[in-house]
Write a structure and sequence with these properties.
single chain, alpha+beta, 3-stranded antiparallel beta sheet, 11 helices, disordered N terminus
Length: 396
């Protein structure tokens, strides 16, 4: 293209590049492509390493070579930000124009980075303030989800609390397509993504989960929600100052390649802050449990000391235990010297039930029989422990 015909277009182009103020990188890319088309038919730009974009598809090596043959690098100093392509422009002009495009793109990138860092800083400050007085673990996870969602693209979220003392997961908050539910019976570690992160104490990320996951044969993914599994997946551990894990945070997105190294670093910052809130909530929860247990002992003593009705006393005993350990199923059994049941109460969801097995022998393969035979308390945390005892869950 002769210089006389390109001069007006180039003058307009240079004026636009100097005057434009674009702070969103996506808008900057659209704007840059629009400006590049003013260089003539077929003109455009492309980011390295020459992968398909929404503007110019490059599906084979020949196309890439042809594109580069009529283009030049957009470069600021030693930093190459892309390729400017103008097949109908004098190739001698391209090296003069390309740095201007590179400078504009770099300016827009810096502006976008500044905005993002400011948003992330604001989010971390707000998260610290919102979790400062929370003592409920579920509330901590809910606030964390809402905070992350305000600055990160995601279609699903999972936050899991892990108790490093009992070595068990104690709570999970799951979000999928804005549906939120809580899992309070998560138990010991398994072979899923959450357990991998807790065991290895480091982040785990996938650009395309279903494609890359076979590279981790030790992981058995757990799918939740009604939607299709997300492609992008990023999970980070919540670690205390001494390195102990207290859970993980993970986010997912339906599109592939959504999370960058910067996203991982930011999620690590979030996880570090949330770990402090989780530890505090756990410590306060343990103190509340001790207080509730002592209060239950006092209530139980008063109930048994003042009641003249055995049934009323036993119901009061169950209520006292419920005060110390809320949200459970409670069973109280009285037997005679022959180990025949003379009274049995069950309380579930606030309702008392009296079992119809009065006069029967305690089942020989049940937990009550085991406890009475050994004379010791019994605690079962896992299916493996249950199975090792040879117990049937039908004889509790």
């Amino acid at each position: 293209m002769p210089p006389t015909t390109t001069a007006p277009a180039l003058t307009t182009l240079l004026s636009l590049l100097g005057a434009l103020v674009v702070t969103d990188l996506a808008d900057a890319q659209v704007t840059l492509h629009t400006l590049a088309t003013q260089l003539g038919p077929g003109a455009g730009w492309h980011l390295p390493p020459c992968v398909p974009t929404s503007y110019t598809r490059m599906d084979d090596l020949a196309a890439i070579q042809q594109w580069i043959a009529h283009g030049t690098a957009m470069q600021v100093g030693t930093q190459v930000s892309g390729i400017l392509h103008a097949p109908h422009l004098d190739l001698q002009l391209l090296p003069l124009i390309a740095p201007l495009f590179a400078t504009a793109l770099e300016r827009w990138r810096l502006q976008a980075t500044i905005q993002r860092l400011q948003a992330e800083k604001h989010m971390l400050v707000m998260l610290s303030q919102l979790t400062a007085n929370l003592t409920d673990l579920r509330s901590v996870l809910q606030v964390t989800y809402a905070s992350i969602r305000s600055v990160m693209p995601l279609d699903a979220f999972a936050g899991t609390i892990y108790n490093p003392v009992s070595k068990a997961q104690v709570l999970s908050l799951l979000v999928d397509s804005d549906d939120i539910w809580t899992d309070t019976l998560v138990g010991p570690l398994s072979n899923n993504l959450v357990s991998w992160i807790i065991r290895n104490l480091k982040p785990l990320a996938f650009d395309d989960l279903l494609v890359e996951l076979p590279g981790y044969p030790e992981i058995e993914p757990l799918h939740y929600g009604a939607s299709q599994p997300g492609k992008s997946w990023l999970g980070v551990p919540m670690l205390l100052g001494d390195g102990r894990p207290v859970g993980i945070l993970s986010i997912q997105h339906q599109q592939a390649g959504m999370y960058s190294a910067q996203d991982r670093a930011f999620m690590n910052e979030v996880a570090t802050q949330v770990a402090i809130a989780v530890e505090k909530a756990m410590l306060l929860g343990e103190r509340d449990q001790v207080i509730a247990t002592l209060e239950a002992q006092v209530d139980l003593g008063e109930e048994l000391g003042h009641s003249h009705d055995v049934g009323g006393a036993l119901e009061g005993a169950i209520t006292a235990v419920e005060h110390a350990f809320p949200g459970q199923v409670y069973t109280l059994i009285l037997v005679n010297e022959e180990q025949r049941i003379i009274a049995e109460w069950v309380k579930e969801n606030g309702q008392f039930f009296r079992d119809a097995s009065i006069g029967e022998l305690i089942a020989p393969h049940g937990l009550p029989h085991h406890v009475m035979t050994t004379g010791r308390p019994l605690l079962i945390d896992t299916d493996a422990e249950w199975n090792a005892m040879g117990m049937s869950d039908h004889f509790i």
